Automatic annotation (TrEMBL):
CDD domains: AmyAc_SI_OligoGlu_DGase
GO molecular function, one term: alpha-amylase activity
Gene Ontology terms: biological process: oligosaccharide catabolic process
Listed name of the protein: Alpha-glucosidase
SUPFAM superfamilies named among the record's database cross-references: (Trans)glycosidases, Glycosyl hydrolase domain
Keyword Hydrolase: yes
Protease found in the keyword field: no
């Protein structure tokens, strides 16, 4: 099989977390008019797709991932007219807008749930998952929630429990009910007809719940119950139905957020002949440095990272499509996590990470501020965190007997709030994010790390991203980057990541030093041309690959003879 070309094969997606992107009216909360003001910035970067985290009406318990009306815009973000203007202005710049589709659950404030909850015989009762207690009054099974100890909450008035894989304010929809599915499909048409470029589908691999609701049996990996509700046949069946009713009628990018997936699952979701979705976000590489159950950070193991990325690159080659990412709104800042955020190496290591990822096959995703090398923020106390998940993890750690210092240290490594700290636009008050009081305090390093500085400085991380995007979209290397075969070189090398991309008569070698030490290596390729080097003053060292010494976090793209 060779892949039928699709417009999103050479797309580069820029993710916006609206709350933290740009505030246009001084209420401290980023908004849609604020995004419109920055479209030129995104266009100059070269990205042609924006994934917008949810902007729908929501009580914001989970910052918009708890939707109370799918056809309305949250007033703090703007109006439907603002949203339509965003689509129009983006289209003028050849940028497509991908919205978040959060349909595993709604907010408990959604009228559907309000009705469902009102009585056992309400017509919408079966739109959510209600079960009788066990005979001793306890929940129907032992499933856990991502944000709470258990996945079931008792509704006193009707005497039944409802299921929520996330918070009790995010009840799970019952996808077994065809009325629910068709309500979702109608809503998707509503948005797609406005000219959307597609959907990012929140935890879409969890929509199929087995009808017998069996107890979880695996307790030492992930949230108890996942073996029953993730990636089952039902999820695939529903997605094929969704494709049939909705997606086949539009030429759109769809990306499923899918924790707990293997490359085989990845093929099931993204193989074009299966008619499900374009691609998925896998979670293996963002799980290697954390041990959730013991709340500890593990050292980043480059050999393991290479094994994971290479397996995905190879297993999906011509059998599906990858998405590749370092960060998003649920992950800490990439440079702090995988590179180095100390002043000496921040810039060069952020560029190294970018090069490593952007030469892989699949669609790259950039999270707002990643292109500036924004870093994690240091939180002084638990009160400074905003995210409900941070609070839950902290309580869990305290119950397990960890000290408050250990709890705080874990959150300083992994809290989702790192990503949600407002974007740094310039060095003025509040980084130019707002004229008011920001909803989440800024990172004080915005005076050095900000978009204005990055745009003005031709050697910045931002310009490095721009070059990488241009290589993928409009250069003689486009086809090898987009469609080439991938080959890992020296899998056991624990310090250097080297891989080859090959397509027709072209081959690119990417070499990245993941350490702050010099590394000397020998490669048996002949250099044709240095394509990109994150040390600009270092070209002369690259005449042969027989013995090369990589500087700290050095990363190069070299065209080599085939
Ligand atoms: C996804 C989102 C996350 C959200 C959760 C519940 O994982 O990325 O931000 O909290 O789903 O919707
Ligand atoms: Ca605002």
């Amino acid at each position: 099989m060779s892949m039928e070309p699709r417009w999103w094969h050479d797309a580069v997606v820029y993710q916006i977390y609206p709350r933290s992107f740009n505030d246009s009216n001084g209420d401290g909360i980023g908004d849609i008019p604020g995004i419109i003001e920055k479209l030129d910035y995104i266009q100059s970067l070269g990205s042609n797709v924006i994934w917008l985290s949810p902007v729908y009406q929501s009580p914001m318990e989970d910052n918009g991932y708890d939707i109370s009306s799918y056809r309305d815009i949250a007033p703090e973000f703007g109006t439907m007219a603002d949203m339509e203007k965003l689509l129009f202005e983006a289209d003028k710049r050849q940028i497509k807008i991908v919205m978040d589709l959060v349909v595993n659950h709604t907010s408990d404030q959604h009228p559907w749930f309000q009705e469902s909850k009102s009585s056992k015989d309400n017509p919408k009762r079966d739109w959510y998952i209600w079960k009788d207690p066990k005979s001793d009054g306890t929940p129907p099974n032992n499933w856990e929630s991502f944000f709470e100890p258990q996945a079931w909450t008792l509704d006193e008035a009707t005497g039944q429990y409802y299921l929520h894989l996330f918070s009790h304010q995010q009840p799970d929809l019952n996808w077994a009910n065809p009325d629910v599915r068709h309500a979702v499909y109608d809503m998707m048409h509503f948005w797609l007809k406005k000219g959307l470029g597609g959907f990012r589908m929140d935890v879409i691999n969890m929509i199929g719940k087995p009808s017998d609701f069996p107890d979880a049996t695996i307790f030492d990996a992930g949230v108890a119950g996942w073996e029953h509700w993730s990636n089952n046949l039902l999820a695939h069946q529903y997605l094929r139905e969704m494709h049939d009713h909705v997606l086949q009628h539009y030429d759109v990018l769809t990306v499923g957020e899918t924790p707990f997936t293997t490359t085989l699952d990845g093929r099931y979701y993204s193989h074009p002949d299966r008619n499900e979705i374009s691609m998925i976000f896998q979670f293996e590489h963002v799980s290697i440095d954390r041990e959730e159950h013991n709340a500890v950070k593990k050292p980043f193991d480059l050999v393991q990272y290479k094994e994971i990325m290479s397996r995905w690159q190879q297993d999906l080659y011509q059998k599906g499509w990858n998405s590749v990412y370092w960060s998003n709104h649920d992950q800490p800042r990439a440079v702090s996590r995988y590179g180095s955020d100390c002043p000496q190496y921040r810039v060069v290591s952020a560029k190294m990470l970018a090069t490593t990822l952007h030469c892989m096959s699949g669609t790259p995703y950039i999270y707002q501020g990643e292109e500036l090398g924004m870093t994690n923020k240091h939180f002084e106390s638990i009160e400074e965190f905003n995210d409900l998940m941070a609070k839950f993890h902290y309580e869990k750690m305290m119950k397990k007997g960890l000290s408050p210092e250990e709890g705080l240290a874990f959150l300083n490594d992994f809290s989702r709030d790192h990503a949600r700290v407002p974007m740094h636009w310039d060095s003025s008050n509040n980084a130019g994010f707002t004229n008011g009081q920001p909803w989440l305090p800024l990172n004080s390093n915005y005076t050095e790390i900000n978009a204005q500085q990055a745009v003005d400085d031709k050697t910045s991380i931002y310009h490095h991203y721009r070059q990488l995007i241009e290589l993928r979209k409009a250069s003689p290397y486009r086809d090898v980057i987009v469609y080439g075969r991938y080959e890992l070189i020296e899998p056991e090398d624990a310090h250097v990541y080297a891989y080859l991309r090959r397509h027709e008569q072209r081959a690119l070698l990417v070499i990245s030093n993941f350490t702050d030490q010099l590394q000397t290596r020998h490669y048996s390729f002949n250099i044709e041309k240095m394509v990109l080097n994150n040390y600009s003053d270092d070209e002369l060292n690259w005449t042969s690959l027989k013995a090369v010494t990589l500087k700290p976090y050095q990363s190069v793209i070299i065209e080599v003879a085939c």
